[in-house]
Write a structure and sequence with these properties.
The structure is a single chain. The protein is mostly helical and 174 residues long. The protein has eight helices and three strands. Strands 1-2-3 form a three-stranded parallel sheet.
């Protein structure tokens, strides 16, 4: 129902208004969230494509007994899509294509509150998920923590540096 004289923008929830201060938007969103939605923001799953690939390689018995390779007992990859549409997933790991990331975000935008999902890649152990890219290690045996400034010190091939920049938000080309 729209009141006479009110615009759609005036009826929009405060948290969706980018012109308002972040604190005011967060307060509004938190008030609207159910306990289940708040807990869901802390849940993280591997990406749907990662799960689908693993489902092809593991027997049903192995799937029921283990969470290895991105399996969750009694959970199929198709269920992740519906959970995302319901706002019951806060983030994903091992989403390595823009296509899948965009698709997951489109599912999240179908949820009641339209909260975007966070998408990450676990590069602390190297870059093994990137086909054709060498896995790199720091002299301590692990990659140093990656942030916007840490890539300049790494002595790695340019394509790998670019791939890591994509997943760390660092866009300067060197």
């Amino acid at each position: 129902m729209t009141l006479a004289g009110c615009t759609e923008k005036e009826n929009e929830p405060l948290y969706l208004n980018p012109e308002l201060p972040a604190e005011k938007r967060v307060q509004d969103l938190i008030k609207r969230m159910t306990l289940e939605e708040k807990v869901a923001q802390m849940s993280q799953y591997v990406g749907v494509e990662h799960m689908k690939a693993a489902e092809k390689e593991v027997t049903l018995e192995e799937m029921k007994e283990s969470h290895a390779q991105g399996f969750y007992p009694n959970l199929h990859s198709t269920e992740l899509i519906e959970m995302t549409r319901q706002g019951l997933i806060g983030s994903f790991l091992h989403v390595v294509t823009a296509r899948e990331a965009n698709l997951l975000q489109s599912y999240a935008m179908e949820s009641r509150l339209k909260i975007p999902v966070l998408i990450g890649i676990d590069a602390i152990h190297g870059t093994g998920l990137y086909h054709g890219q060498p896995s790199i290690r720091h002299r301590s045996g692990r990659l140093p923590p990656l942030n916007r400034n840490s890539l300049n010190g790494l002595r790695v091939k340019q394509p790998l540096k670019c791939a890591l920049r994509v997943h760390t938000g660092h866009s300067r080309q060197t």
